Every structure is written in structure tokens, then in C-alpha cells.
Amino acid sequence: MKAFNTVLGFLLFLFGLLSIILNLVGLQFSFLTWMENLGRLGAFVLRLIMVLAGIVIMYLNLVDWKKDNTSTSG
Prior knowledge:
The protein has 74 residues and is mainly alpha-helical. It has one domain. Helices cover 64% and strands 0% of the residues. α1 runs antiparallel to α2.
């Protein structure tokens, strides 16, 4: 399950970033054309959310929570 979530996060990040880059040159992925119904700003915000959500999902899956749970109180 951890590997699946990491791949999902990477794909969200990748497609979000590539979608922003392609939109700058006037192209878009055919399966993401529905985002243009939200307007230019709405589509851009949704692409940014895809990128950020991908980063967050990857970070949450790749951090070793058991090792990072140590107390640093002195």
C-alpha cells in the first residue's frame, strides 16, 4: 500500500507539473481538458493543488514515522 501511495503521489506531481508547463505553450493533456471549464484561474489553481498534493503524499509515505517519533525534551 505504501508503494502504491508513493506512485500515486508521484503521478499527481508529474501530471500537475507537466500540465502547467504544457499550458504555458498552449497545449494540454486530453484527459485533463475538463479543467478548462473552471476558467483559467480555476484550472491553474487545480494544477497547483495536484502538484502540492503529490508532494505531500510522497512525503507522508516516505518518512519513517517510527524512527522520527523520538522525544527531544531535555
